[in-house]
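user: Please review this fold.
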Amino acid sequence: MSVVRRMLEWFRVAFGPGPRTADGRRTGGTMDIKRDRMVFLGYGKYWRSDAIIGLMPIEEDRGPKRRTNVFVEGRVEPIIASRTEQSILEDMGASEGGFQVQALREAITELLAAFHEFSPVLRRALQHEHHFDVEQWEQRVGELLRAPQTPAAIEQNELFD
């Protein structure tokens, strides 16, 4: 079992928390925006999550009531929000868990590709000496990757009728 533990430890180190900028903000990744959800922008301002097309932190003249420029469909000028871009993203549906799921999915895909590269000799050695069945894990991980990614949509349209 020590081979499995070492592999899991390597996995955690290699694919731990996702890439971040120098100031600690997460970079890259994909997100699933929850439709028809009202996002609080601060001080009584709300906007639909699927109409928000961009967020940009305010760097000059930043302060109370001035944290993030929120770009929305149909408006030339951004809305000035009093909340940070991270808190707005979380309300839109892009939580930290979502980023972690995407990073884990990519890591598992790479792990599966590595399993495919194992030689028959290594597969037999792992099976006989460490009771680690590479073929079984290939099949199991492959099934996890083929599982549906999108959760069932939450119907909120009745709230807006």
Remarks:
- The chain has two domains: 2-17+96-146, 38-92.
